[in-house]
Amino acid sequence: MLELWDKAITSIQNRMKSQNFDIWLRPIECTSIADSTVTLRVPNRFFQDYIDANYLSIIRDQLHELTGEDFAIDFLISEPSADSPTDVRKTPQPAPAQPRQTGILAGQLNPRYRFESFVVGPSNQLAHAASMAVCSVTGRKYNPLFIYGGVGLGKTHLVHAIGHQIHAEHPEMNIFYVSSEQFMNEFISCVRNQRQHDFQHRYRHDCDVLLMDDIQFIAGKDRTQDEFFHTFNSLYDQHKQIVVTCDKYPQEIDNLEERLRSRFQWGLIADIQAPELETRVAIVKKKAEAEHIPLPDDVAFFLAENIRSNVRELEGSLIRLAAQASIEGRSIELDFARHVLRTVFNLSSPRATIEDVQRAVCAYFNLRAGDLRGKSRQRSVTLPRMVGMYLCRTGLGASLPEIGERFGGRDHTTVMNACRKIERLAEADLAVRSAVDTLRRKLAI
Ligand code: ADP
Ligand code: MG
Mind listing the pLDDT tens digit for each residue in 164-173? Predict the structure, then answer.
């Protein structure tokens, strides 16, 4: 019966990276197969968790494929020193005797998200350069690297690229890519099973590079924030690289502990803004090339002009266009693209610009365009100015520095405070709410 295990494991081996296989699957010993249950012996509990989270379904599927039967999997743990495993786990400090594994690449890295496939333009130059720097001088400069920007602008892409690059250059390093939501779930599950120590050991001791995506999710989750804070400190003290992404600037994340906020500012904060037209064209062309979609220049421009603030949507439209073209057995041309994407664009693309917003605000409040950029501190001017900034932020997704620049060279914190203020006023003050609503409708944002 154990032959079944050999067969299963051999065909899994053929489908995965040999390094991962050697680290995770080769050490497993199958001790029995009986009553539709396969018992596997693994070196320790951390190992079991890792198999559980990452390889269990592959193993089950393979067994099913070979036999047509569904197997349950039981684990047997052979701790290196069998003395008293429970006591070991209760010790607050990591057990020093435990051998340190190397070359772990934990978390799913998308193989397509690499530096080579990332298009650099003025909107993401800093974030890109900082990400590259982090790979070559691991652990010192730019720690932590904090990348922030709106949805679909390439944060995850860059972080995966960092993971791939460091892994290629330093295969011995343990790289952990995790979203803060996964970090939280994993933490909760360890607390529930009284295995905090394993969790801490994994993140503070095993990890060489921590890539934490979408940190905004831990806002308001006190225990997870606390755990992350200690993880951060431990890694930082060991000069381990930390990269964090977020959809907001640290000061803008509500319900984030001050001590975390300030730590995010110890290193480098790099923003990604919505790409400008040329960058969008380059991105859509690169994507078409990668997917072998023949895309004429005028169609590339058409897509890039109509989708301004989200690269994911840009890619989505290209794929949709390609799918439709293949269904209809025709090539992609401008008229065809217009026809296929007509409804999509009307629905989802904000066509207004910062200038449009400023013009509409001036018309509504009866001001001159220069007033919004000027120095006046009178409420009759400051209120419309703040409304304009707020609309640009929430309606167009423009970045804080860009808005500041376009409203008379103001600092990004001024813009942020303005947005907060209008948010509050819109709830309390009917006149402000109605101004915001009317302008939104008028601008279709
Ligand atoms: P975010 O994490 O910021 O929400 P993602 O990294 O998931 O965004 O990016 C969304 C999609 O857009 C991905 O498919 C990504 O490859 C692509 N993308 C974003 N920016 C770029 C860029 N500068 N060059 C190439 N592709 C990009
Ligand atoms: Mg992302």
Answer: 999 999 999 9
Kindly state if the Cβ of 119 falls inside 6 Å of ligand 1.
yes
Cis bond before residue 144 (omega within 30° of 0)? yes
Q: Is the CB of 312 under 6 A from ligand 1?
A: yes
User: How far, in Å, CA of 135 to CA of 158, rounded?
Assistant: 11
Atom number in ligand 1 closest to CA 119: 24
Whether residues 122 and 266 share a domain: the answer is yes
User: 384 CB under 6 A from ligand 1?
Assistant: no
Domain that holds residue 164: 106-272
Q: What is the pTM of this model?
A: 0.61
Look at residue 19 and tell me whether its pLDDT is greater than 80.
no
- Residue 149 sits in the same domain as residue 246: yes
Same domain, 237 and 119: yes
CATH code, domain carrying 206: 3.40.50.300
Query: 218 and 120, same structural domain?
Result: yes
* Ligand with minimal distance to 214 CA: 2
Average pLDDT over residues 114-120: 96
Asked if 403 and 392 touch (Cβ cutoff 8 Å), the reply is yes
Q: What are phi and psi of 327, to 5 degrees?
A: -60, -45
CA-based end-to-end distance of the chain: 64
Domain C-terminal end among 318, 345, 372: 345
